[in-house]
Amino acid sequence: MAKEPFTKPTSRAPVSQRSQTVGKINKKALGGKVTAVIDGIEIKVPMGTTILEAAKKIGIKIPTLCHHEDLCLAGVCRVCLVEVEGQKTLQASCSYPIIHNVVVKTYSSRVRRARKNIIHLLLRNHYGECYSCEKNNNCELQDLAEEYGVTEYKFGHIQERRFQPDLSSSAITKDNDKCINCKRCIRTCIDLQEVGVYESVNRGPETKVSTYLNKPYSDVICINCGQCVNRCPTGALKEKNDVAGVWKAIDNPNKHVVIQTAPAPRAAIGEEFGLAPGTSVTKQLNTAIKRVGFDKVFDTNSSADLTIMEEGTELLLRLKKYLKEQDKSVKLPQFTSCSPGWIKYLEDFYPDKVDYLSTCKSPQQMFGALIKTYYAKKAKIDPKNIVSVSLMPCVAKKYEAKRPEMNDSGYQDVDYVLTTRELASMVKECGLDLPRLPESDFDKPLAIGSGAGLIFGATGGVMEAALRTAYELVTGDEAPFKKLRVTPVRGMEGIRDAQIPIKKAKKEWKFLEGASLKVMVAHGTANAKKVMEMLELGKLDDYHFVEIMACPGGCLGGGGQPIPTTDAIRKQRAKAIYAEDEQLTIRKSHQNPVVETLYKEFLTDGPCGHKSHKFLHTHYSPGSSWIGKKPRVKVRKK
Amino acid sequence: MTKTRKGPIIFSKSKPFSGLKNAIDIGRSEVLDYVRKSNIKGRGGAGFPTGVKWNLTATASDKKKYVICNADEGEPGTFKDRVLLDEYAKLVFEGMVICAFAVGADEGILYLRGEYISFLPELEKTLNQMRKNNLLGKNILGKKGFNFDIKIRLGVGAYVCGEETSLIESLEGYRGEPRNKPPFPTNTGFAGHPTVINNVETFAAIAHIILKGPDWFRSIGTEKSSGSKLISVSGDCKKPGVYEIPFGTTIKKILKLTEAKDTKAVEVGGASGVCVAKSEFGRKIAYEDLSTGGSIIIFSKKRDLLEVAKNFLDFFAEESCGQCTPCREGIPVLQEKLDKLQQKKATKGDLEDIFSLAETMYLASKCGLGQTAASAFVSILSNFKKDYVLVKS
Fold first, then answer.
1. Is the Cβ pair B169, A15 closer than 8 Å?
2. CA-based Rg of chain B, rounded to a whole angstrom?
3. Is 70 exceeded by the pLDDT of residue B27?
């Protein structure tokens, strides 16, 4: 019997914060066009277009602060004010839909006066000085102040802290003293991610962004995805900075410091050095990392390939049990487990569904387990002297590395996780101009990653990689896509699904012949929620494999990536990743020689064997937020 | 026993629900026409033409529509709605039913100020009586297909929830914060459906308009402000209370009516209104002159107007929803400056900052609260220059 969804399938975003306004009028407009004259320039736009968008189309820049392309309207900072003829007061251009012809002035004296005052008001309670802020030179408030020639604090400037920063999370820190109440984090968390860590509390001048009951992050349900960090215009939200720890390790001559780099940061770190989004700098980065002082630099893609072998095998085994052996206790579809944000989302919001997750660790953690075992032995280094660092596009990985399950090597498998931004700051500290550095390769023995491992960085990538391998394992033929581009699972649509018919199967997989492999891909946990609701309603009963990434766009849009992030930037990063994939000769995980060697030398009983189970698989726990704490939520039993 | 009140419109005599009967007799379009022709404007303070509002909702294409009565009377110095809810509840509900009939709504909500909870039992009783008499429910008064019922919901004391869109947010269960406009509630209101939101007093006047016609209504008041206004007079006078006056009544006359003496200033429109000096007591209560939601506060010569301004600013600091910058961050700056003025430490520069900031708050705030938060303060500074001194810098 299909039961009602655990949560109602409505957005939990407060109505005022949803973009329903423009959308609704748009629908009724039936394609009607209206004329806007903005600063004397005429433009025809579809009814319901906001003034801000119309202005953008004709190259007029209106400053914004609370507005963000990825998020619904807020209209709270009031920086984007413009003068609309016939209106007594100024109007926020970000939230003013044009429904009849308008004449707009974007920089009249009234507008400029008001804007300047608003910037002064925002600076008044913005604690600290720019030079002592991590976001110096990448702060939207700072940019605005500069644009409007702010040279003094007209309405004063706060000299003492009002709040204690929240440092309780292993992934994110919050400093309310730098918060300007733009509500981007609230909207991100509610609208984009459907988690709802934040809300505005108190009233008037006391208003602040708070967690539930003002508890520290460690005591509320937060999936650590860091999407809020990516969208915070100031330095109020940041990742938990691990740079100091890594420097300490590098400076210690007794420590052997190795780093693995994930594909998504390599396609984005150039942005921190002024390169256009979508410029891949993998090999220059290797040089930079070495010059910074790391002893070895490895490719996470090689463990991504390992993940595919393990996860693909796990899927085929589940299918075999379910279809051939008729064991209906097997949970299908199998969900990917590469994204620690998604895992935590599932554990906390759908605790009775953890069995659907693949038991595979994420590539980062597989790699971590290998470094302090396989690599340590091979390089003849005592694992206790190895400091294992990873470069990730993700802040949830910081949390993942500290999970109690992740110490199968006998030590904490990954010691430090650096985000793209953190590593960029280290490279800058060394005075290295990344784009101009010579190229160099990864270090052996974990130097090779296939194109399949590489595309893990984009949403749909894990699925594509898995299909390339699984299809070939089952049929003996290459997956039936031109240039191996599994296009149905690519793209930026929130939820995508695809069917791959298996025409002929090898003897071992005969039971799959004639069947269609049904797969689904989703990114952003708001979409994950929709998928979970489909699952609860039994609509995924005939699906086999579902890839979910917690962040919009997949890892390339991760919470640790360069700021800003927009749909266009994410698409450029994806383009870079897919282009790099096509330049590689090895584009299928099972053909990666590193993987072959690993199964020969270390994981001797093959994919999903005992050894790989010890090092590469794990178990997830319902309601993981409460591990080690008194349980406050009852786990629903089926 | 309630005292008999006298007035040209709302406090005039009428048989309960005769307006509604007439509405059903003359039909929907005629009712809308009456309201439009009467030129009645919203009695809550903003003064939006009620006829236009109803028409927009009536023509909005949606099967579900709502009528909401805004009884979140919170403006400091206003207490006229409590009189209506207490003594003329039938009239208010009648207005709501007429509105529902005109715009095609089938659900009504009375958003009652939390502090007025004591009226709740009596109001519920009135509604039940109406249900019994087929003035609510299905096929009201025999009119086939005219179904409408009213429920009462309580606010919890936020001033800003008197603003129509934050009232809706509050009704929907969210934090009371004004929405972006457009779209307006007439198009996208409660639960996304077209909604008429009117003040208690507006609904009470409607019943009379439908019964006695728009021409009669327009004969009272001024050309641009037709009808009468309920005012709640408080402060330094002998006879404070609720009065019904025709629009166009001067302040002088109100002072006479309430037997106020030695008046120095009159605050018209409550905390969000303006403070009028003696030289301007000839001004009229009307939308085109001194607009008010009903609050009239009289200050005698003994009063320190800076203290009055402080009182109002403290009120706004507490009641601002905190969502938009000018209001959230601007009010404390005004408070600081006022503090300086009171300590006689303010300079000319401070005064300039106050006026500049007040202009920004008016121009840039999202809703009426922020737009008017500085209004009383600024009018005190401009009209009562003798009440403060500046230091030469």
1. yes
2. 21
3. yes
Nearest alpha-carbon partner for A498 in A480, A509, A486: A486
Catalytic residue among A134, A271, A272, A400: A400
Half-sphere exposure of B360 (CA within 13 A, CB side): 31
- DSSP designation for B374: T
Topology of domain A243-302+364-436, CATH: Rossmann fold (3.40.50)
| Phi and psi torsions of A6, nearest 5° | -55, -45
Distance (Å) from the alpha carbon of A82 to chain B's nearest alpha carbon? 9
Of A16, A117, A121, the CB nearest to B179: A16
The number of C-alpha atoms within 13 Å of A120 and in the hemisphere containing its C-beta is 21
A85: annotated active-site residue: no
Indicate if A422 belongs to the active site: no
The CATH fold assigned to A303-362+449-624 is Fe-only Hydrogenase (Larger Subunit); Chain L, domain 3 (3.40.950)
Contact B325 A99 (CB under 8 A): no
**Every domain of chain A and the residues it spans:** 15-107, 120-239, 243-302+364-436, 303-362+449-624
Position A27 confidence tier, pLDDT thresholds 50, 70, 90: very low
Instruction: Name, in order, each residue with C-beta under 8 angstroms of B277's C-beta and a sequence gap of 6 or more.
Output: B264, B265, B383, B384
Cα–Cα distance for residue pair B318/A591, rounded to 1 Å: 67
What CATH class is the domain A120-239? alpha beta
How many whole angstroms separate alpha carbon B208 and alpha carbon B216?
A: 10
Q: Is A134 a catalytic residue?
A: no
Give the list of residues 6+ apart from residue A378 with CB closer than 8 angstroms, or none. Answer: A445
User: Is A303-362+449-624 the same fold as A15-107?
Assistant: no
Tell me whether residue A72 is one of the annotated catalytic residues: no
Q: What is the pTM of this model?
A: 0.92
Q: From the candidates B161, B323, B331, B375, which should be mutated to test the interface with A, based on the most A CB atoms within 10 A?
A: B323
Complex ipTM > 0.85: yes
Q: What would the pLDDT profile of A444-477 be if each residue is shown by its tens digit? A: 888 899 999 999 999 999 999 999 999 999 999 9
Is it the case that residue A110 has pLDDT exceeding 50? yes
SS (H, E, C) A341-368: HHHHHHHHHCHHHHHHECCECCHHHHHH
Q: Which of A222, A338, A394, A551 is catalytic?
A: A338
Strand partners, B347: B391
Kindly report, residue by residue over A296-336, the tens digit of the pLDDT: 999 999 999 999 999 999 999 999 999 888 888 999 999 99
Nearest to A122 among B165, B182, B329 (CB): B329
For the segment B136-168, what is each residue's pLDDT rounded down to a tens digit?
999 999 999 999 999 999 999 899 999 999 999
Q: Is A133 one of the catalytic residues?
A: no
Could you identify the residue written with the tokens 């997989």? Answer: A509
Residue A156 has pLDDT above 80, yes or no: yes
Query: Which pLDDT belongs to residue A3?
Result: 38
Residue of B180, B318, B353 with shortest CB distance to A73: B180
Residues A622-633 have pLDDT tens digits of 876 655 554 444
Q: What is the DSSP string of A84-100?
A: ETT-SS-EEGGG-B--S
CATH of domain A15-107: 3.10.20.740
- Cα–Cα distance list, B353 to A123, B359, B372 (Å): 16, 10, 17
Task: Using CA coordinates, name the residue in chain B closest to A93.
Answer: B180
